[in-house]
């Protein structure tokens, strides 16, 4: 616990938490609006995600809150279930299901996401941030904040929104966004001024300029500013909370929605956790099963109080990392600020221009999709570069889950292709008049290698001496063993002499924990 309160970490975590809070605020409101839920529900979800989930989670840098990837599910669920209170019951049940998934150790799924796909997802999020924030940077703020999908509910898309934005430019917003970008780029380079975080300065400047522009031709309107609910009394605040309708517990549709939310939210969370671990400067590894439990607790709390379903979200987490956060105190700070803001300073926050927040997200997007990343993936080879690029295109042109699914299919294709090619080492030597062919099997020879080995054995030249060496093999699939056995018994038909070295009749796969510790497979 001491590390969370050390002065070195707090100096980075508190400013980072403020920046994440400023970015999360309009995202929470926009996602609530796009989901057809009360605006307060978005803020409440952000508060619970920041304080409750971050306190339980083992991830130091991920930030949880309402997710754009769930907006369509939430919107249709509220409509189909007939009331928001019934929907809240589904959120509570989804939370319990996520806790169950955590105890069942379903978080291990995260270990099977190909690295190239995760890198592609991060770069795609960066590109989406740039494309989605360009309209806000020029003063076009009519679309729903936080919707990361390519195709919008009104049948417009990301590119058509940019085209429309360029016809409705507000020069006051342009001035604010350009000055904000300059500050974000050059302010950190001045070491003596680093005490004041550049994003905080950008927000202060944005408020000041929006006030100065009021009586000019480039004045900002209410559409160009953050809008959060203003609470004037305790009774008003209490009235914003909602309770689930437990009388619908036997409603089959409620359980269908709950299972859908639990599965989609868990997958998005695991993807985000894997991605955040990749951009963590300290390269820590987050416990995924514990994260599922934390998300489940968060969703139970959110559903009980009237909030939306939540996930670990990549945009806010990326801002957190890029703002210099070191521990989960930054995420807790962001949740605390969300709580304090709605209680004490809603009028001040409603003066923040969306243009300056857009500038913060534009810089974050650039850092996620930097050119150096593309160069690095290119140098890693086409088996890494192609899944990387396909994931980017698919995520940008569809949405996060569909795009990652497409990238996964391409990534798995290359993994299978490499496995099919590399089950053994092949060597040909001369032994008098005959050829001596040595086939040295790899450490693990799975069912996926069956076709390649069978093809090789069938096409060996006749009248050869063949040595099949399994000394290094810790596991050989039964089907492969059968092929080798059949080849040995039929070798006389080709005048071939076969010698098997250290190939056992049976190989046993040990329990998963033993494999993690030793990395070995026992032969018996």
The major sheet is characterized as: 4 strands, mixed
**Structural category:** alpha/beta
Shape: elongated
Q: Percentage of helical residues?
A: 55-70%
Distance between the termini: 47 Å
Mean pLDDT: 87
Give me the number of helical elements: 21
Give a quick rundown of the structure.
The protein is an alpha/beta fold and 524 residues long. The protein contains 21 helices and ten strands.
Describe this protein's structure:
With 524 residues, the protein is an alpha/beta fold. Helices cover 60% and strands 8% of the residues. The chain contains 21 helices and ten strands. The strands form four sheets. A four-stranded mixed β-sheet has the order 3-4-6-8, with no helix packed on it. A hairpin with a 2-residue loop joins strand 3 and strand 4. Helix 5 runs antiparallel to helix 18, helix 8 runs antiparallel to helix 15 and helix 10 packs across helix 11. The longest helix has 28 residues. The radius of gyration is 28 Å and the shape is elongated. It starts with 6 loop residues before the first helix and ends with a strand.
How is the topology of this model organized?
Elements (H helix, E strand, L loop, with lengths): L6 H28 L4 H18 L6 E4 L4 H11 L2 H20 L11 H23 L20 H9 L4 H16 L11 H15 L21 H6 L12 H28 L8 H18 L4 E4 H9 L6 H16 L1 H4 L4 H15 L2 H9 L2 H16 L2 H22 L2 E8 L2 E8 L2 E2 L4 H9 L5 E6 L5 E2 L1 H13 L6 E5 L5 E2 L3 H7 L3 E2 L1
Helix pairs in contact: 1-2, 1-12, 1-13, 2-11, 2-13, 3-10, 4-10, 4-11, 5-6, 5-10, 5-15, 5-17, 5-18, 7-8, 7-15, 8-15, 10-11, 10-12, 12-15, 16-17, 17-18, 19-20
């Amino acid at each position: 616990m001491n590390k969370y309160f050390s002065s070195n970490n707090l100096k980075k975590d508190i400013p980072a938490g403020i920046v994440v809070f400023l970015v999360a605020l309009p995202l929470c409101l926009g996602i609530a609006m796009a989901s057809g839920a009360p605006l307060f529900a978005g803020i409440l979800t952000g508060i619970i995600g920041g304080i409750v989930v971050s306190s339980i989670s083992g991830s130091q840098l991920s930030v949880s809150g309402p997710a754009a990837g769930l907006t369509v599910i939430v919107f249709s669920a509220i409509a189909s279930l007939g009331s928001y209170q019934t929907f809240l019951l589904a959120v509570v049940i989804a939370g319990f299901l996520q806790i169950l998934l955590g105890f069942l150790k379903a978080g291990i799924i995260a270990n099977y996401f190909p690295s190239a796909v995760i890198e592609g997802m991060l770069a795609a999020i960066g590109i989406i941030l740039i494309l989605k924030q360009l309209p806000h940077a020029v003063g076009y703020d009519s679309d729903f904040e936080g919707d990361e999908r390519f195709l919008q509910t009104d049948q417009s898309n990301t590119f058509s929104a940019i085209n429309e934005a360029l016809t409705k430019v507000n020069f006051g917003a342009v001035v604010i966004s350009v000055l904000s970008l300059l500050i974000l780029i050059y302010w950190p380079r001045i070491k003596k001024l680093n005490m004041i975080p550049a994003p905080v300065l950008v927000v202060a400047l944005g408020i000041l300029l929006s006030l100065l522009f009021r009586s000019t031709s480039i004045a900002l309107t209410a559409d160009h500013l953050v809008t959060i609910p203003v609470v004037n009394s305790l009774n008003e605040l209490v009235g914003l909370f909602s309770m689930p309708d437990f009388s619908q517990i036997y409603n089959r549709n409620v359980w269908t929605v709950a299972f859908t939310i639990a599965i989609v939210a868990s997958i998005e969370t695991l993807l985000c956790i894997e991605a955040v671990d990749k951009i963590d400067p300290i390269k820590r590894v987050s416990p995924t099963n514990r994260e599922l439990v934390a998300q489940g607790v968060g969703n139970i709390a959110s559903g009980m109080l009237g909030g939306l379903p939540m996930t670990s979200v990549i945009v806010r987490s990326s801002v957190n990392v890029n703002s210099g956060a070191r521990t989960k105190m930054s995420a807790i700070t962001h949740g605390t600020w969300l709580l304090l803001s709605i209680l004490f300073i809603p009028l001040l926050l409603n003066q923040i221009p969306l243009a300056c927040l857009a500038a913060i997200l534009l810089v974050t997007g650039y850092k996620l999709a930097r050119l150096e990343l593309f160069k690095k993936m290119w140098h890693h080879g086409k088996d890494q570069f192609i899944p990387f690029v396909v994931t980017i295109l698919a995520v940008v042109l569809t949405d996060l889950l569909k795009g990652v699914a497409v990238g996964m299919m391409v990534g798995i294709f290359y993994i299978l292709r490499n496995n099919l090619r590399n089950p053994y080492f092949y060597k040909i030597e001369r032994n008098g008049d005959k050829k001596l062919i040595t086939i040295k099997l790899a450490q693990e020879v799975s069912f996926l290698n069956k076709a390649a080995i069978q093809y090789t054995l069938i096409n060996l030249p006749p009248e050869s001496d063949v040595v099949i060496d399994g000394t290094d093999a810790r596991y050989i699939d039964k089907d492969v063993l059968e092929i080798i056995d059949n080849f040995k018994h039929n070798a006389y038909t080709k005048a071939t002499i076969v010698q098997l070295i250290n190939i056992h009749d049976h190989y046993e796969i040990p329990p998963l924990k033993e494999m993690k510790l030793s990395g070995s497979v026992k032969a018996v």
